[in-house]
Design a protein that fits this description.
Helix 1 crosses helix 3. By secondary structure, this protein is of the alpha+beta class. A hairpin with a 4-residue loop joins strand 1 and strand 2.
Amino acid sequence: MSTLKHHPLVELAREAIAAYVVGRKRTAPPEKLSAEMQQRAGAFVSLHLKNGDLRGCIGTIDPQRDTLAEEIIENAISASTRDPRFPPVRRDELDRLDISVDVLTPPEPIDSIHDQDPRQHGLIVQSMRTSWKRGLLLPDLDDIDTAEKQLFYTRVHKANITDPNEPVQLYRFRVQRYH
């Protein structure tokens, strides 16, 4: 295991993943939570292999748990075992994972994609016809360099809104990204 220390939120995610992958155990939040870990916020946990390939990413837009620590534990376990794009993380992969944690600000509605900067803001696209058609894309992703690309990818690939005439509501948010 790497001796390099990461941000405490990333260390918590790594501990949760290892405990679950190795022994199917859920990590408990630290007994003394920092002010940061006590807050309530949506959070995403992203896993990449050392070569840069995505290995899992799961999160919550709105907080679902009482503390950010609990949110990260649950999302870390889900990113490593329930991302439908990948098989569950194996024990032999644990040392090869790069983990990042994104803590989201509350989403704010925007009137136009022209109000969007994909390097600074994530994007949520919500169908105005069906509430279950909602997708999210985190900010500052390598291949997403324009607001139009961010909208297309979020709308079609994340929210599965393929009808270009289907009305949508757009929301943006910022993240604090930890490695």
